[in-house]
Specification:
It is a single chain. Helix content is 12%, strand content 33%. It is mainly beta. It folds into two domains: 128 residues, no CATH class; 262 residues, Methylamine Dehydrogenase, Chain H (7 Propeller), CATH 2.130.10.10. Helix 3 packs across helix 6.
């Protein structure tokens, strides 16, 4: 998986030109020039959306300034490893300053380093190797400091905040599930967009498409219905596996890297973001497509996410190496686990909701208390990236699989490994049915079906290495994705391919 790392500059990508100097020319223009300038000024203001704020006509809120810092500065100035100990991710951290002292003086932007350095009015200029920040962004920072470092968040209308752009009211499925096959007859009436606040529902023309298959970064199966969630770039496709029809197409802000259904099947969550810039987790009500929450503001993408059995807690992790737990109702951070030393690749709440397991790229598995993220146990044994975690129904045993080719069983009463076996090849993904049978997706282009103790039952050959797999809710079929982006439906009883998931395209895609 190609993942964008955190950049090494304070503010990469500036291309502003300093439009503020235009004000200095007003006295030199004749009356006609002034009239022309004033006539075109509203249009310019409308384009950048910040002229009114920069001119002092309205209060600059924290979320406006934070968006600038997130885009320009978080790569180097966020969290415990912030350069110069200057963290720009919160108002409190900005007030605290860095190793060189105060970074801001409320009401005095001309004496505040977080304005002077990006504006290139003092040295060292920020970013160290880049152009000056666009003037409209500097004006916002200037206005925010002048206004007293407001911590307010601007109100956002429900319509503007909604990310659910396409939902389908479930139609009756064919009488027999024997019609399972390739998605080839999807029509406009099957997928309907529904934007929050919209008065009418408008069809979206949908057609199968095979071009430009994307790597499959995650798969999720509802535990209570025949729904399968599949990422497709910046959208989530929700299928009914019994007939391969698309039930929902949900837009996500950024690329999707993690998907998970709640234990009752009512909520679907997606984690992801923009590499090196941002990451978050969003949750939707499955039957209606209504967005329920969006939590997290990571400096990089979210690679792993889960929702607690009661739906109250959301856990996320990724390149930041920190597990963060949020309250899904209030959106507040409830705990952080900071002892991982490498990227977090998977995490899962225990079935009773009391514990949270997280595995990283180094091979370490940490078990934390779900409510507080306090350390409960450290499980060491794997010598390669963790590719999957699975709790027992009683929450006293944890199964882990890794790219070192081993599957290990851990007793959480003693926090010790009780058994292990070799899969014969690096394990990239796995799932387990209620009877204990394991489905292991291998780098050797096979799905290995084994008993709980590793006894081989059968192997399925695939054209390429298995990147993701998940069992259907009844355990009768397995959805398997390979490294080329192909996603197939296997019948477990005879390992036959009985269907294929082909991402649909829309006319406005």
């Amino acid at each position: 998986m190609n993942l964008s790392s955190i950049t090494e500059t304070f503010a990469a990508g500036y291309n502003g030109t300093g439009t503020g100097v235009m004000r200095g020319y007003l006295l030199k223009f004749n009356l006609l020039a002034v009239v022309l300038l004033l006539a075109t000024w509203p249009a310019a203001c409308a384009q950048d959306g910040s002229a009114a704020v920069a001119a002092g006509d309205s209060e600059v809120t924290w979320d406006q300034v934070r968006a600038i810092f997130q885009k320009r500065c978080f790569a180097c100035h966020r969290g415990e490893q912030a350069r110069g100990a200057l963290d720009l991710s919160s108002v409190a951290a900005i007030r605290a300053g860095g190793s060189s002292g105060a970074a801001v003086i409320s009401g005095k932007p001309e004496e505040s380093l977080i304005y002077l350095l990006p504006a290139h009015l003092e040295t060292p200029r920020m970013p160290p190797s880049g152009n000056k920040m666009p003037q409209r962004e500097l004006d916002l920072i200037h206005g925010w400091i002048s206004g007293g470092l407001s911590e307010k968040i601007a109100a956002v209308s429900p319509a503007a905040a909604s990310t659910v752009v396409a939902v389908r009211t479930p139609a009756k499925r064919p009488a027999a599930a024997a019609t399972v096959g390739k998605l080839s007859a999807l029509t406009a009436e099957m997928v309907l967009p529904r934007n929050a606040g919209a008065k009418t529902t408008k069809p979206v023309m949908v057609r199968p498409v095979r071009q430009q298959l994307r790597p499959v970064t995650s798969l999720a199966a509802s535990p209570t219905s025949p729904l399968i969630a599949i990422p497709d770039g910046q959208r989530v496709l929700v299928y009914d596996w019994t007939d391969l029809s698309v039930r929902q197409i949900i837009q996500f802000s950024g690329d999707v890297f993690a998907l998970r259904f709640s234990r009752d099947g009512r909520i679907l969550i997606a984690g992801g973001g923009i590499g090196g810039q941002s990451g978050h987790v969003t949750g939707w009500e499955v039957t209606t497509g209504e967005q329920l929450f969006s939590v997290g503001s990571e400096p990089d993408i979210v690679l792993a996410a889960d929702i607690s059995p009661d739906g109250r807690l959301i856990a996320l992790g990724g390149p930041s190496r920190v597990v963060r737990i949020f309250d899904s109702v209030s959106g507040q951070l409830t705990g952080e686990q900071k002892k991982h030393t490498d990227w977090i690749l998977d995490l899962q709440f225990s079935r009773d909701g009391l514990l949270l397991a997280s595995g990283d790229r180094f091979g370490t598995v940490l078990v934390s208390e779900a409510a507080t993220a306090s350390e409960f146990a450290v499980l060491r044994g794997h010598n390669g990236p963790i590719s999957g975690l699975h709790w027992s129904a009683e929450s006293d045993q944890l199964i882990t699989a890794g790219q070192d080719g081993t599957v290990r069983y851990w007793n959480l009463h003693s926090s010790r490994q009780v058994s292990q076996f070799s899969a014969g090849a690096p394990v990239l993904t796995f799932d387990k049915d209620p009877a204990g049978t394991l489905m292991l997706g291998l780098k050797s282009a096979q799905v290995a079906v084994t008993s709980a103790d590793g006894g081989p039952l059968r192997n399925w050959a695939l054209p390429d290495e298995v990147s993701q797999l998940v069992l259907t809710q009844d355990g009768s079929h397995t959805v398997v994705a390979d490294a080329t982006g192909n996603i197939q439906l296997f019948r477990n009883s005879d390992a036959q391919v009985v269907g294929e998931f082909v991402p649909p395209a829309t006319d406005n895609r």
